[in-house]
Amino acid sequence: MHNIKPKITLVGAGPGDPDLLTLKAVKALAEANVVLYDALANEEILDYAPKTAIRIFVGKRIGNHAYTQDQINQLIVDNALTYGKVVRLKGGDSFIFGRGGEEIDFAESFGIETIVVPGISSVVAVPASQGISITKRGVSESFWAITGTTSDRKLSSDVALAAQSSATVVILMGMHKLAQIIDLFQKEDKGNLPVAIIQNGTTAEEKVGVGTVDSILEVVKQKELGSPAIIVLGEVVRESSKLKGFYEEFLSKEIAR
Length: 257
Prior knowledge:
- By secondary structure, the protein is an alpha/beta fold.
- The strands form three sheets. The chain has a five-stranded parallel beta sheet with strand order 3-2-6-1-7, with helices on both faces. A five-stranded mixed beta sheet has the order 8-9-12-10-11, with helices on both faces. The chain has a two-stranded antiparallel sheet with strand order 4-5.
- Helix 5 links the parallel strand 8 (143-147) and strand 9 (168-172).
- Helix 2 (69-83) packs across helix 3 (100-108).
- It is built from nine helices and twelve strands.
- One of its GO terms (molecular function) is uroporphyrin-III C-methyltransferase activity.
- This is uroporphyrinogen-III C-methyltransferase.
C-alpha cells in the first residue's frame, strides 16, 4: 500500500436520470478506488465504478443522517490517504446547495489534490424536462435559485425578495415550507402567477402539479406531491409547450366565471 497518491474527485451526479451524467463523471468513477455517495436519485450510477471499488453511503435523508458533515469530510480524507483515488458523488451539482465547497476546503487543508466535475443541476434540468425554459426573451431575463430550508431550518429570507421581482424563482428543498412561500407571493399580489411543482424530476417516478400561486396548495393535496420536489414560480411556466394546455383551459374557466 506504499506510494499511494491521494486524490479526491468531487462529482456531480446530475438530477436523477442516469443518462444525464457527464462523460467526465463516468471516467472519474471508472478510476475510483472508493466512492462515497449521497442518497442518489438513481443508484445505477454506482455501476460505473469498478466492482472492486469500496462503496460507502454517507447520504442524509430527512430524519436519518448517516453521518454528520464533519464526519463525511474526515471519511473522504481518510479514504484518500489509505486507498488513493476517492470519488465523492453528490446529486445534482456539488456546488449548488451540495456543501461541496466545504468538502474541497477540508481536503485541501491536508494538501490532497482535488478535482471538481460539475454536474447538471436540477435547478435547470428539472424545469427543462417539463419544457420550462427558466429564462425566455420577453418573459424572464433572470432567475433566482433558492434553498427552501437554510442550515438553521428556516425559510431563506431571499424568498421574500424574489417574490418582489419579475424573475423566475426556482426553489429546492422547499416543500415543507410551501405554505409560507405561497403566502409571500400572495402578499405581492401574485395570486395568478403560474407555479409548477415537479417531484422526482427526470426519473421514472416523476410527478408534476401545475397551477397558480392561489391554487397550487390544493393541487399538491390532490396529487399528493411531496419531497424531493422543485418549485418553479414564474410566467415561463405558462410558456411551456407541455403545460400550455393546462393554462389555456384554466384561463377559459376563469373567464367563464
